[in-house]
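I wish you would study the pair of lines that follows with an eye to the fold:

===
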Amino acid sequence: MRRRGLWAVGGVVALVLGGALLVAGCGTVGYLAQSVHGHLSLVQQARPVEHWLADGSTPERLRERLVLSQRIRRFAVDELALPDTRSYRDYADLGRPAAVWNVVAVPELSLSLKTWCFPVVGCVGYRGYYDRNEAEAFAQGLRAQGYDVRVYGVPAYSTLGRLEWLGGDPLLNTFIGYPEGELARLIFHELAHHVVYVKDDTTFNESFATAVERLGVRRWLQQHASAAAREEYERFDARRRDFLALALRYRARLAEVYAGSGSDEDKRRAKAEVLAAMRAEHARLKAGPWEGFAGYDRWFEEANGASLAVLAAYTELVPGFERLFEARGRSFPRFYDAVRALAQRPRDERRQALTSALIADKDPAR
């Protein structure tokens, strides 16, 4: 099974919009309809974990992972103060490698994600499809308009705790086989979306969830994981840190190119040079410290402006959230209270508070 990498979240399933189909424009109705149908199909395939464990035909490896998932889920509630919802109590095998396929896009010479707006959840920088062919077809239309576009599969998405009556978000074959630390990270990330969600601010939402997963997995590994699981996680996480450092460094270079005074043609040439240099550095990293690890090969092969732009949504504000956690005495309930308070403030104020060097000494929610 493909490991998680960075694409943890498929976004907010359109079904949480409830009656949005009644108020959406014609161009949006078809998209929302496939989201509703896709999620209902997913839920209908799910069965309670207890049923899988009681079924004698359940493979032993799956049985072990399901038991582990319930331990992780209990830890999330008891130790990380995450909501005790119905999510991750059921399991479904979708028979496909991803829960949804996300489409992200940026203008040819920009790193600003194109956004799509919907009732209730606001504007987001992606569109998720349950059918890869539909995702590719939509992406092709964007490419024809001159956008840099990336389509990528994601193993999970969040319904924000708003679909408890349907059983919440199930465990899926798309991630149940992840290494222990990666499985914990994903569950913590998705449950964090149940704590707070801010309309029109994908970076705030995803950076918060990423901070929670990082903080949570440290505790899990320290308190519950075996030495072998900790070593496995450290190897994978070291490569992830290398990947992020490399990609974000070249993202900054590309931003400088776009902000420069050169002509569009000059910027296109410089853009190609930046992407070529990034791929060459990845090749050296793979041949050296990574000892041939190929987990990021496809990302670098397909990398473009959209690939680099979406990285910021998951990482940009994470250091600020981690400093806020320290400022609140490493207490998850107090940390969540501070985040909820921040969520009530205007977007620019939230960002300023989270990027302020004073965050460790002063509660930014005040």
Remarks:
- Residues 318-360 form one domain.
- The CA atoms of residues 47 and 90 lie 5 Å apart.
